[in-house]
Amino acid sequence: MTLAWNNAVLLASLLAVVCVAAIVLIVVAPWKRIRAEPPLPDDVETRLLLGEDPEEILEEEIEEEEEAREHREGGEVFDLDPQRHPPS
Q1: CA–CA separation, 44 vs 48, rounded Å?
Q2: CA torsion, points 61, 64, 70, 76, in degrees to nearest 10?
Q3: Minimal CA–CA distance to 58: which of 71, 72, 41?
Q4: Is 56 domain-assigned?
Q5: What is the model's pTM?
Q6: DSSP line for 19-77
Q7: What is the per-residue pLDDT across 70-85, written as a single tens digit (0 to 9) for each?
Q8: pLDDT digits (tens, 9 = 90+) for 27-58
Q9: How far is CA 40 from CA 1, 28, 72, in A?
């Protein structure tokens, strides 16, 4: 009787340790990857929290980026390094 009780306690303890280890892995494993992601802009985060459609927000963000690229001022870029492109 005591041998069966000891085996049951050992098995329950082992199961508890495995469960705790699994929970720790579930919580800790993706942490570095999540922390490495750039944060959302405040206006996008606010819109998401207010329940707006993420697809609509993404489309608007892409349109804003394209407009910013089109209206960006700047001239042509010249490579001034003679070692890189020797004169022909």
Answers
A1: 6
A2: -60
A3: 41
A4: yes
A5: 0.41
A6: HHHHHHHHHHTTHHHHHHSPPPPHHHHHHHHTT--HHHHHHHHHHHHHHHHHH------
A7: 777 665 666 677 677 6
A8: 888 777 777 778 888 988 999 899 999 899 88
A9: 60, 22, 23
CA angle centred on 77, ends 71 and 80, rounded to 5°: 165
Q: Which domain holds residue 64?
A: 39-71
- Whether 28 and 55 map to the same domain: the answer is no
Count up the domains in the chain and report the number: 2
Same domain, 27 and 47: no
| Single-letter amino acid code for the residue at 3 | L
Q: How confident is the model at residue 1 (pLDDT cuts 50, 70, 90)?
A: low
